[in-house]
Amino acid sequence: AYAPYQYTPVYLRGDMNGWAAGPDSQMLYHGSGKYEITVQLDAQTYLFKLADPDWTSINLGGGTETLVNPDLPLQLFDGGANLSFTPEAAGSYDFVLDASDPAAISLTVR
Fold this sequence. Notes:
The protein is mainly beta. The chain has strands spanning 11-14, 28-29, 34-41, 46-51, 59-61, 74-75, 77-78, 83-85, 91-98, 106-109.
């Protein structure tokens, strides 16, 4: 099975990393349509999106719902609005992008 975005890297881009598409913000492909990255966050609100380096072929955000709740998948949309996540406590958080179904792409933070 091929990665949903082929060879285009997917990045977690937001307040936690200056919205940069750097090596520390690249999501790793784990198979089955899933990409994942683990980041250290403080107990504050972060705005972010999932995107490629130049915001063209991949630019995923929220629809009517943009607030990401822990352990609850949120559907993402191409060109969607900035997402928001507020950790309850400082620590390590996994961001999991599930693009196995192009019609129902989702993000889960745990």
